[in-house]
C-alpha cells in the first residue's frame, strides 16, 4: 500500500496528513492523528466520507455499479457458484478446491441442529412475534448455549462459532417461521444442500412428503449469494463496533440483525412489496411518483436509491432475472405486482427527479416479489437477508479481530448542548 500525504490548514496551523491508497477505489486521508495535532475532530454524520477500516473482503464501485467479493464480480459468483462456496470465499479469501469445498460443506452441514432447549426458548414468544424479533433474541441466546465458542482470543473457538452461526442460522430462521404459523419445527436433513435443507425446514410438514423444487432452491441460493456481504454498511459496521469491545460473536451478530431490521436497510424489501401492493395497479403509479418527489411528503419509493450505488445496483439486475425464473417455474403468468414493479421502474428511470438524484432500483425492489412467490410471508424477508448476511458479518468481524491495529470503536461528537451550569434544587426551579 503506497502512501503520500495531504496538507490541512486549520486554525492558523498547517498539518501533514498521510494519504493511503488501496488496491482499487478512492484513497483515504488518514486523520487518526488530527485530534492530537490540532485539538479538532472531523465531522461526518452518516459516515458519507469516512472509511472506518481497511478491508480485503468486498469492494463496491457505486458509480460504475460494480460489486466484488474478494475480487470476484458478483455476476460471475451468482451464475457459476453456490452459496457455501461464496461463504468459503468470504471467510478464507480464496475459492475452495474441490476437497476444501467438500470438507467445508460437510462441516457446515454437521452443525445445523440447534440445542434442543432452544425449542423451549422459542415457546416464550407470543405467536404473533415478528420473526426478526425472534432472530435477534435467539441468535444472541446462542452465546448461552455454546459456551465453548465464546472466547474470541482463541482462533479455534472463533472458527467454531463462525461455523455454528452459518450452519444454524437457517434452522433458527425456519423455526421462527414455523412458530409464527403454528406448525411443528422441522429438523434439518443433512443430506440436502444448504438451501434445499432450509426450504424443507420452512415448508415441509410431518404429515406429508416434501420434495424440494431445484429451480426454487437454486434461485434462493442465488439470492443468498447476492446478500452475502456488502462492505461497511450499517449492520456490518454495527457488528464491527459491537465486536470491537470484545463482545462474544453471537452477541455481535445479534446486534447486526437488530440493525438490519430497519426499513432503510434490510427491512426495505418488506417495505417495497407493501408499497407495490398499496399502488396495486399501474394506473396509480403517477400519483406515487408525485408523492415520492414531494418534499412535504415523507413517502419514498421503497427499493429505490442507495447510499453507495449511484447507478443500477448490480444485484438488482440478477434479482430481476431470478424473479422471472421463479415466476415462470411456478407458472405465474400474470403477477399484478410484477406488472406494477416493471412499469414503476420504467417510469422512474426516465423521470428527471430520479435521474438527477441518481436513484436506481436496489436489490430490494424485486426480491420481495420473488420471495412472496416462493411462499415466504413478508415478515420473513428480512430474516432471509439476515441468514445470508451472517457470513459477511462473520468475515468482517474475524478480519477486525485478527487486525493487530484493532481498537475499540469510539466516535467523538460536536457537542451542542448547554455549557456547564450549576444544579438547582426542585424548590428553586421556576
Ligand atoms: N424515493 C424518493 N426520493 C429519494 C429516495 C427514494 N427512494 N431515496 C433518496 N431520495 C432523495 C432524498 O429525498 C434526497 O433528496 P434531497 O437531496 O432533495 O433531500 C436525496 O434523494 C438523497 O437521499 P438521502 O436520504 O440523503 O440518501 P441516503 O444515501 O442517506 O439514503 C437510502 C439512501 C436510505 C437507501 C434511501 O435512498 C432510501 O430511503 N431508499 C428507500 C429505502 C430502500 O430502498 N432501502 C434499501 C437500501 S439497500 C439495502 O439496504 C440492501
From TrEMBL:
GO terms for molecular function: citrate synthase activity. PROSITE patterns: CITRATE_SYNTHASE. Keywords: Acyltransferase, Transferase, Tricarboxylic acid cycle. Signal peptide: none annotated. It comes from the Bacteria. InterPro entries: Citrate_synth-like_lrg_a-sub, Citrate_synth-like_sm_a-sub, Citrate_synthase, Citrate_synthase_AS, Citrate_synthase_bac-typ, Citrate_synthase_sf, Citrate_synthase_typ-I. The keyword Transferase applies. Pathway: Carbohydrate metabolism; tricarboxylic acid cycle; isocitrate from oxaloacetate: step 1/2. It holds the Pfam family Citrate_synt. It catalyses: oxaloacetate + acetyl-CoA + H2O = citrate + CoA + H(+). Belongs to the citrate synthase family. PANTHER family: CITRATE SYNTHASE. This is Citrate synthase.
